[in-house]
Amino acid sequence: xxxxxxxxxxxxxxxxxxxxxxxxxxxxxxxxxxxxxxxxxxxxxxxxxxxxxxxxxxxxxxxxxxxxxxxxxxxxxxxxxxxxxxxxxxxxxxxxxxxxxxxxxxxxxxxxxxxxxxxxxxxxxxxxxxxxxxxxxxxxxxxxxxxxxx
Length: 150
Description:
Blueprint: H1 4-10, H2 13-21, H3 26-34, H4 40-58, H5 80-85, H6 94-108, H7 112-123
Helix pairs in contact: 2-4
């Protein structure tokens, strides 16, 4: 059999989400989630949500102000920077997807992805961030504090 990393390279995001959820051993799911300081149930839920977002994008669906039918599970308090940044009042909006992506991407390449998001808002000031679920003070929240533009 090929190594796991090779298998993951050819999986779709949906297949990867299902594979992770269906790992028999909770210990294995936790070992993966621990890399991101998350509970395995939260990571599993987010991977499912992300596969839905990916499918919307792949089929040219409206994303920016959409209310999703499925909201992933939010961490209650840990990691605290993530829990404090999520918008409980807009659970099914793209803002929370972007928060989780920013959190996960920071583990790979700190701040680079978040800066790209911020740059998009600078380039397109006409975008109504509130309809995306962004709170007014979003740049002051823990996950976003490190971005480097105004």
